[in-house]
Every structure is written in C-alpha cells, then in structure tokens.
Automatic annotation (TrEMBL):
GO biological process, one term: folic acid metabolic process
Family the entry assigns: Belongs to the dihydrofolate reductase family.
Keywords linked to the UniProt accession: NADP, One-carbon metabolism, Oxidoreductase
The organism's taxonomic lineage, starting at the top: Bacteria, Bacillati, Bacillota, Bacilli, Lactobacillales
Protein name, per record: Dihydrofolate reductase
Oxidoreductase listed as a keyword: yes
Organism encoding this protein: Enterococcus saccharolyticus subsp. saccharolyticus ATCC 43076
UniProt keyword annotation of Oxidoreductase present: yes
Pathway: Cofactor biosynthesis; tetrahydrofolate biosynthesis; 5,6,7,8-tetrahydrofolate from 7,8-dihydrofolate: step 1/1
Length: 162
C-alpha cells in the first residue's frame, strides 16, 4: 500500500529551499509515529535537504535519475516501477514523503493520503501538485493542539481513494 504523507500551508506550499518553511513539532511527532518501522520514499533533493540524514528505524528509499548515486544507509532506486515492486513485496505501508515531483509521480498509485493542513500562509518555493479530489474521500480529521511549541493551528486529514 502506498500512502502520500505531507504537510502544507493553506495555499499548498510544502517547502522552501528544500526545507520545511515552518516549525511544528507536533507534526514532526506525527510523522515519526506514523512512519516508524515502515519505509519512506523521497527524492534526492529532499534527502539532501535533510542533510542526507537517514531517519532511524525506517527503511529509506531515495529516488534519483543519477544511476551512479549512492548514500550509506538507503536504498537508491531510479524508477516508479522499482518502488511499486518494492511496495508490493513488503507487509507494511510505504510512505511517499516528497518532494513535489515525487508526489506527482506517485499520487496515481496511492491508496491513502495523510495531509497536515496548517492554517497559515508561509513564504516558499515548492507546492504540492494538483490533486484530483474527486478521487478521494475525507475519512478522518483530527485537530492539532496549539501551544507554546506549536504556534500554528493545524489539522491532520486522512483521505482514502474512492
């Protein structure tokens, strides 16, 4: 099962200079709890934007067109089909976590979408690709807690493919 997992502002912004444009520890905790023990798939730019840091207790797949690309602790794949084959062989959800081009390539294959919607506008340069919402049904919304560490109103939304 493929699941797209991302956070965005109210305008669909997901990044700035290959980083998150906001600081929201509750969403990072949600991400960790959701993906721990699972596989995450990201593009090379996203991986390098994280400082090539491999997140603990997760299998990381980095997608790149560069056939010679290597990095310790990750699986490097080059095609959509490679990831789909991998996802069909494992007994857990595989999470597509970005960036925008990776989301665009994998949205047609996702069974579920997990979106953290932040009720603010931020400055940035990377936006979530257009999603055909007629193919999706909202199945759960959970309001995030706003406090001194999590200053932005946000909610976690789960969508299932119709």
């Amino acid at each position: 099962m493929l699941v797209a997992l991302w956070a965005q502002d109210k305008n669909g912004l997901i990044g700035k200079d290959n980083q998150l444009p906001w600081h929201l520890p509750a969403d990072l905790k949600f991400f960790k709890e959701t993906t721990i023990g699972k596989t995450i798939v990201m593009g090379r730019k996203t991986f390098e934007g994280m400082g090539k840091r491999v997140l603990p207790n997760r299998q990381t797949i980095v997608l790149t067109r560069d056939e010679n690309y290597q990095s310790d602790g990750v699986l490097v794949m080059h095609t959509v089909e490679e990831v789909l084959d991998y996802a069909n062989k494992v007994n857990h959800p595989v999470y597509i976590i970005g960036g925008a081009l990776i989301f665009k390539d994998y949205l047609p294959y996702c069974d579920e979408l997990l979106c953290t919607l932040i009720d603010e506008e931020f400055d940035g340069d990377i936006y979530m690709p257009t999603i055909d919402w007629s193919q999706w049904q909202l199945v759960q919304t959970t309001e995030g807690i706003v406090d001194e560490k999590n200053r932005y109103a946000h909610r976690y939304q789960t969508f299932a493919r119709k």
